[in-house]
Amino acid sequence: MTEKCDYVIYNIKKGLLVSNFKVDFYKEIDGKKPVGVFIRSLDIKMKAKVVANLHLLEEYGNLAREPLSKELEEGIFELRTIEGNDIVRILYFFDKEKIVIATNGFVKKQQKTPRSEIDLAKQRRVDYHSRKEAGTYE
Predict the structure, then answer these.
(1) Nearest CA-CA partner of 77 in 97, 57, 47, 96
(2) By the 8 A CB rule, do 63 and 57 touch?
(3) How far apart are CA 62 and CA 113, in angstroms?
(4) pLDDT tens-digit profile, the chain (138 residues)
(5) 15: left (phi over 0), alpha (psi -120 to 50) or beta
(6) Nearest 10 degrees: CA dihedral of 113, 77, 54, 61?
(7) Is the separation of the CB atoms in 70 and 78 below 8 Å?
(8) pTM over 0.90
């Protein structure tokens, strides 16, 4: 870990920096939560690690850095989980008032994050904000 990350973790543990973010899963119009469906499809060890990393994201919020989290582009981030040779990514963005919206998840099979996954996260972010502004996002 870098010195800055060690500093952040030390201060969080001491209660000097309290993020208390809340992770929510993006909800489609029919109420389905694609990230929840994806997580439930994972094997038990990977599922446990992903859930643990989501809890860390709630603790660290926008202070989360590599290897836990990385900004991809334009406010879209990836939560990074590795179990053995398997790599899982959950894409997310930040909303106001310390809310994290997890948009989509995938098993990473190549070096670079697929453009289609980033585009899906951006599309869901636009949908989330437009439905929220219209008062139809529950």
Answers:
(1) 57
(2) no
(3) 21
(4) 445 455 555 555 555 555 689 999 999 999 999 999 999 999 999 999 999 999 999 999 999 999 999 999 999 999 999 999 999 999 999 999 899 999 999 999 888 999 999 999 999 999 999 999 999 998
(5) left
(6) 160
(7) yes
(8) no
